[in-house]
Amino acid sequence: MEIKGELTLRKRQVLIFFVLLGLSQAGPESVQYSVAEETEVGSFVANLARDLGLGVEELSSRETRVVSDDNEKHLHLDLLTGDLLLNKKLDREELCGSTEPCVLHFQMVLENPLQFFRAELYVKDINDHSPTFLDKQILIKISESTITGTTFLLESAQDLDVGTNSLQNYTISPNSHFYIKIRDSSDGKIYPELVLDRELDHEEEPELTLTLTALDGGSPPRSGTTLVLIKVLDINDNAPEFAQSLYEVHVLEDTPVGSWIITIFANDLDAGNYGKISYTFLYASEDIRKTFEINPISGEVHLRSCLDFEVIQFYTISIQATDGGGLSEECTLVVKVIDINDNPPEVTISSFTKSIPENASETLVALFSVRDQDSGDNGRMVCSIQDELPFFLKPTFKNFFTLVSEKALDRETRSEYNITITVSDLGTPRLKTQHNITVTVSDVNDNAPAFSQTTYTLRVRENNSPALHIGTVSATDRDAGANAQVTYSLLPPRDPHLPLASLVSINADNGQLFALRSLDYEALQAFEVRVGAADRGSPALSSQALVRVLVLDDNDNAPFVLYPLQNGSAPCTELVPRAAEAGYLVTKVVAVDGDSGQNAWLSFQLLKATEPGLFGVWAHNGEVRTARLLSERDAVRHRLLVLVKDNGEPPLSASVTLHVLLVDGFSQPYLPLPDVAAAEARADPLTVYLVIALASVSSLFLCSALAFVAVRLCRRSGAASGGGCAVPEGHFPGHLVDVSGAGTLSQSYQYEVCLTGGTGTSEFKFLKPIIPSLPVPDTGRHTGENENFRNSFGFNIQ
Fold first, then answer.
1. Cα-atom radius of gyration of the chain, to the nearest Å?
2. 53 partner at 20 to 30 Å CA-CA among 71, 196, 460, 784?
3. With contact defined as beta carbons under 8 Å apart, do 380 and 425 qualify?
4. DSSP 118-166
5. What is the Cα–Cα distance from 635 to 40, expressed in whole angstroms?
6. Could you tell me which residues come within 8 angstroms of residue 347 by beta carbon, excluding any fewer than 6 positions away?
7. DSSP assignment, residue 71?
8. Which residues of the chain have pLDDT under 70?
9. What pTM value is reported for the model?
10. Could you give the dihedral angle defined by the CA atoms of residues 624, 629, 635 and 640, in that order, rounded to the nearest 10 degrees?
11. Cα 210 to the chain's mean position, in Å?
């Protein structure tokens, strides 16, 4: 019996649906009437008896009624005359706002037999509103360097009338600098633009005050004015630029007041006051200003009052960014209001019969209509009564239903029926309204699993451990039982080359995602995975979501030096003339880092130098420069150790060694080859003699200086202790050889000095450094020096 009753109920609901669909498509054509707004109460609209082809007595006997879709009693039917009269004054702007034409839908209901006639009342607009500006004064800042022909956007006026009675033109008070240009928009509205006709001069006239007048097209026309205050500023050559020209955001209609909506950002390349940007609404209607507010400094848009999807589905807001110099840019913000199920269904009883004969069948008990102001599934409704009652619901026209007895009733068996009519929508959560009605809906698998997000973004740091839980996707099913049990799976990737099976896996029961192997940011920065969620209904329904996995970079790559090369070959030596001034560019260390972001930010540091304070390294670009003027006392060869460090945590570094040679009065591209220099040295014996004489004089000077120092030390020691002083004997240490009597060089490098001859004049030339020499025993020192003197007249500087 229970199964049979359930099948009967399902058949009844299906029958109601198809009957309603057929009647809605086969209804009579609408009758159209028109009336001007603000027409006095009781004014004649039409004669229904004549239009319907019925007699006045028949209208009265069939209890003819006028039912409006919005349940407002705009019209009154005089059953004595059949005239349709206005029941109250109609305000077109209040009823329809800016919608044109303004149409009020209503039905004429006749009983015995039951008939419906559709009708439409067109409310015509009259010119009863003047154009108004929301701002009493409009401030515009204009640079004196602005060229003629430049246009400036002005705040538009608001006119509640439509058609020819709406806003039609703008004028500006007479002046010698500006005129008004009208700009048409795609929505049919006009906007004023102030056009510069003659150049401004800040010193001559720093401010101008003009009157902007808005005119409508009524007869006689109405107008509204506002003041335009123009401040002439000094030059400003960069206007603000928005990151994008169109911003779009979706906001739930139950978002709390004061909530942050979006941040609008514009950039201005100018500095100082010209680079400071202020944000304002442009062309904003009163509804926009009441609903939203923008921070003039940060560009943050906040909700000022509650949203209502049933009133306004979206807002198009023009936002102007103006810098301190008066230049401005415009962008558009579209705020789409997302409907939530916040309106329960409404039930309106049109007629009700309190007593019916017990032997009557299919008797009309009640006539009612249902309405839900929400949209989509939130506005779809299901109407039902208790089962096992001798009544059924019959859809008649549009959202109208009749409650009819199913069979003859027996008063002795049951004298009173408590009928509960239940109207429920299909939103989430479901809302319902009862007027002596309850609905019972058995579950069918009509809802696919819905993910909490259409796109998930998961972040995992590279070098992760395998089988790491990286995130969870969640899908819910509004059904019940097996229809609501969700199973998760990975769908085939769109990219056939993506090895998805080796990257991630998903737990089929709870939607947890795991990374199967360690990820490398340098090899794979991001990838996308499509996740499916299927219920266990029959047939099963499914949906899918996109999971975007972003691999975060770790500081796992040390800096790599590109120049100078560190490949184990002979070091590259940089030559610096001794005449170089402070800040002279010696060389530049070039390095790269395989990481990204701050992990790839490199800084350079001079870690070690032969002579600290002589060279410096610029921290950001790796340029090696002299820190001061060079002197003759500075060593010839220098070794610099430069540290290259990234900005990661912890930081990684690399080092590079630079070799610098100080040279005198030459340019390396013009150095002669070794064989040419040797030939020139052999060709000019006079030069050889000069070098020998110079070396002898230098040696004599050095010996005299050492003897003088030794004698002074000996005297000081004798005066203190009364004893004598021993003068050092033997040769100087093997790693020092005097070249010019002015200093010594380290044994790290060997240089070849050649004398040229053949022209009668002597030339002293340096050649490029040769391989480093090794220390030799003291016993062979003089022999080695004599041999070098004979071969190339070179000096071994050790």
1. 48
2. 71
3. yes
4. EEEEEEE--S----B-S-SEEEEEEETTPPTT-EEE-PPPB----GGGS
5. 110
6. 368, 369, 370, 421, 423, 433, 435, 437
7. S
8. 1-29, 234, 237, 271, 357-360, 409-412, 437-444, 567-571, 665-688, 716-798
9. 0.37
10. -10
11. 39
